[in-house]
Write a structure and sequence with these properties.
This protein is mainly alpha-helical and 505 residues long. It has helices at 3-12, 14-29, 33-38, 73-102, 104-123, 129-157, 163-167, 169-193, 213-220, 223-233, 240-245, 249-259, 267-285, 300-315, 318-332, 336-353, 355-364, 367-389, 396-414, 420-427, 434-463, 467-484, 497-501; strands at residues 42-43, 48-49, 55-56, 64-65, 68-69. The chain has 23 helices and 5 strands. A hairpin with a 5-residue loop joins β2 and β3 (55-56).
Length: 505
């Protein structure tokens, strides 16, 4: 492993940073007063709340606006949040064609530019949920496309012995993006939502806008990482495997030499080139690939494993927590400041730090072992979150125990089910159908993510913290799947995978 290989993998992983920022920013934006009033989730007549969130008529004690929820709040919230995931679903399907025609590196760069355009549309949105939903759908196209290609690109430039660790960089940067969004936008929320102007003054028009700087800044800031990724990708090499598939072997050997910090005549470079050429030749001998081939006897088991792995990843409930955590903490009984600023930042930091044990364990313990351990841990902590939340009226101790359970659930996810599905889908398919196979996994991820994002607000409104029991049941099913169906692929090269899974379905 040399510094250039690490730089290539890290830069490509910035696609995860875009994903993470998009997830993290919405948690805070959804509880910004200006955003809620602008899109008519809530209205405000001028009344205020005290520090503990209780209504008060004493202007001196007023800290926050006392917003009244509109009847269609849960529906609009679900539409705006889930439109991003719907775009990601379409982007994952586009990745198959674009990744094979134009290459992984160039398509990732284009995806970053598309992300930037979507961010601008969101930040400049008119007073209609349609425009911001379209903007989020466009950013989703980028995230879905890069969600397929970034891990694939990394796996094709990384040495086999540390391929899993480097592929985990995508998940690491996703969690880092969530932290960046939480910190920046929590600071913005604090300075614009604590003791705002107009508290205690009766408003004749309850739907009248307040200053929209806070949420416009939060969404437009996405332009920075979007342009950053596009610029950085200009300096990265094309995938040597893709170059060979396009009969550009001379370019491929130069890239391999650069990745290995040696000359084109080096034995290691020539050996890697020969292995790639043989794989490409075998792929061509079998003819052009199709999605139907993913269900052939040789490939179908890994297709089912990949699809179900991404499905269960979403039904662990992680994104209900990440999208709506401020509202969950408020439901448990914490103040606005704690729910919006302190607890989300702590939780997102736990999410980020917990990814590092996963990068270690994915090579030493194996992919399957992490899935088995993680599903059991998450099930336990979902149940404990629900149990503690039923006792919060008895004192703050129970509130903090409920939040601790949420943090432990996030920890359990971040080092197991967070990185493993992305690493697994990038390494189990042969070159011939690699992008298509990875797309199936990513489509499964975003399809189920969309369902979760859309129904999440309604579930929390109808079931409150009983929703955690639903996710506990899903984690139990995920354990059964991991224990009895998943095939371990730790230490197995991409080109040896056929022999291990052929004919098993």
């Amino acid at each position: 492993m040399n510094s250039f290989q690490f730089l290539v993998a890290l830069t490509a992983s910035f696609g995860g940073l875009l994903f993470g920022y998009e997830v993290g920013v919405m948690n805070v934006v959804l509880v910004m007063d200006a955003f809620r009033i602008f899109f008519k989730f809530h209205h405000w007549n001028g009344d205020g709340l005290d520090e503990k969130g209780q209504p008060t008529k004493d202007v001196a004690n007023m800290m926050y606006r006392d917003l009244k929820e509109a009847d269609n709040k849960a529906t609009l919230e679900g539409l705006i949040t889930s439109s991003f995931v719907l775009g990601a679903l379409c982007g994952a399907l586009m990745a198959t064609y674009l990744g094979e025609k134009y290459g992984r590196q160039r398509t990732i760069m284009i995806g970053a530019c598309i992300f930037t355009c979507g961010a601008v549309i969101q930040g400049l949105s008119a007073r209609s949920w349609v425009m911001i939903a379209v903007g989020r759908l466009i950013t989703g196209l980028s995230i879905g496309c890069n969600g397929v290609l970034c891990p694939t690109y990394i796996s094709e430039v990384a040495p086999a012995k540390i391929r899993g660790t480097l592929s985990s960089c995508y998940q690491l940067m996703t969690t880092f993006g969530i932290i960046v969004a939480a910190v920046i936008n929590s600071i913005v929320w604090y300075y614009t939502n604590v003791k705002p102007e107009g508290l205690g003054k009766t408003r004749s028009n309850i739907w009248e806008e307040v200053s929209n700087f806070e949420w416009r800044f939060a969404l437009l800031f996405q332009v920075v990482p979007g342009l950053g990724l596009a610029l950085l990708m200009c300096f990265l090499p094309k995938s040597p495997r893709w170059l060979c598939s396009k009969d550009r072997d001379e370019e491929a050997v130069e890239v391999l030499a650069k990745l290995n910090a040696t000359s084109t005549s080096d034995e290691l470079v020539q050996s890697e080139l020969k292995a790639i050429q043989e794989d490409v030749a075998a792929t061509r001998a079998a003819g052009s690939s199709s999605f139907g081939e993913l269900f052939s006897p040789v490939i179908r088991r890994r297709t089912f494993i990949t699809f179900l792995m991404q499905l269960f990843q979403q039904w662990t409930g992680i994104n209900v927590i990440m999208y709506y955590q401020s509202q969950i903490y408020n439901e448990i009984g914490f103040t606005k400041f704690m729910s919006t600023v302190v607890l989300p930042i702590i939780n997102n930091f736990v999410n980020f730090i917990s990814t590092f044990p996963g990068m270690w364990g994915i090579e030493r313990l194996g992919r399957k072992t992490l899935l088995v351990i993680g599903s059991l841990m998450m099930m336990v902590f979902h149940i404990s979150t629900w149990a503690f939340s039923t006792q919060t009226s008895k004192g703050k101790t129970w509130q903090y125990l409920a939040v601790a359970s949420i943090f432990l659930m996030v920890f359990s996810f971040a080092w197991t089910w967070g990185p493993v599905p992305w690493v697994y889908q990038a390494e189990v398919f042969p070159l011939r159908v690699r992008v298509k196979g990875s797309a199936v996994g990513t489509v499964s991820n975003f399809l189920n993510n969309w369902i979760i994002a859309f129904v999440g607000p309604a579930l929390m409104k109808a079931w409150s913290t009983k929703t955690f029991l639903l996710f506990a049941a899903a984690c139990l099913l995920a354990w059964v799947y991991s224990q009895f169906y998943v095939i371990e692929c730790k230490g197995v090269s991409i080109d040896e995978m056929d022999a291990k899974m052929a004919g098993k379905a």
